[in-house]
Amino acid sequence: MSVICADIEPLAFVFADDGLVPNNPMPFLVYKGAIDVANAHPERTIEGLFGANGWGEMWRNGVYDYLHYHATVHEALGVARGRAQVRFGGDHGREFEIAAGDVAILPAGTGHQRLSASADFCVVGAYPPGPPMDLVRPTKEAHAKALKSIPQVKLPNTDPVRGADGPLVRLWNL
């Protein structure tokens, strides 16, 4: 039994730099219902998929309720349980409902903030090989620094959901 829908394509969105949140010219990707998490251990299911696709630095938790971004790493968020309303792209970005089985992939610099969530909301976060995750809150000074670090972030070799031939590889190597 496969844990993913083999031909699923992500939705792609590009968020503009708003002067505080740099975002990224590479698209933010959302796979809706990509992973079959209807089992007793959905976190392990997501961890196994992300790990098999080379996104091995992982954690389990939620999404912070304050606006932040990562200027040194790309991030994948796999929803294991529940649902949440999350704004991606900063204050001028877009709100999404993400639910169990969805995966959001944020290129470095993409703002994100949880607006609300179900009590059982649980996310598996993952990063491709590279420097450790940084957590940046939007300020003018942080923005200026991030504009220098974000272009230096190495492109991942794989899509955390679909692997070496996945859409991320095609969409981020423009």
Describe the overall structure.
By secondary structure, the chain is α+β, with helices and mostly antiparallel strands. It starts with 10 loop residues before the first strand and ends with a helix. The chain has a single domain, classed as Jelly Rolls (Sandwich), CATH 2.60.120. The protein contains three helices and nine strands, in the order ββαβββββββαα. The strands form two sheets. The chain has a six-stranded antiparallel sheet with strand order 1-2-7-4-9-3, covered by helices on one side. Strands 6-5-8 form a three-stranded antiparallel sheet, with no helix packed on it. A hairpin with a 5-residue loop joins strand 5 (83-88) and strand 6 (94-99). Helix content is 16%, strand content 27%. It is globular.
